From TrEMBL:
This is DNA-binding protein. InterPro entries: DNA-bd_dom_put_sf, HTH_17. It comes from Salegentibacter mishustinae. Residues 42-86 form the Helix-turn-helix domain. It comes from the Bacteria. Keywords: DNA-binding. One of its GO terms (molecular function) is DNA binding. The keyword Repressor does not apply. The keyword DNA-binding applies.
Length: 95
């Protein structure tokens, strides 16, 4: 059995306009809230040392101490740029 919806005192044009207005509002909300996902960038140990202006041995020690999280593929070691940036702490005094 089919469901039938009846609209009283509404013209087809009014119905179309109301629907279009609702869709436009939803699209505007999506435009404001939508943030495209950035692809993760992986850095080598050398790139991390250059980025932070530290020696390769420091990268090694920070990795062993758990300050930096390594990712591996085969025998290669990589670090996520976003995690490197998150590992940096704010040293400004709290007022």
């Amino acid at each position: 059995m089919k469901k039938v919806i009846q609209l009283h005192q509404t013209t087809p044009e009014e119905l179309v306009n109301v629907i279009l207005l609702g869709v436009k509002k939803e699209i505007e909300i999506l435009k404001q809230e939508f943030r495209p996902k950035e692809p993760e960038e992986y850095l080598t140990r050398t790139e991390v040392s250059k980025m932070l202006k530290i020696d390769l041995s420091t990268v090694h020690h920070w990795t062993k101490r758990g300050k930096l999280k390594p990712y591996g593929l085969g025998r290669r070691v990589y670090y996520k740029r976003s995690e490197i940036e998150q590992a940096l702490i704010d040293l400004s005094p709290i007022h």
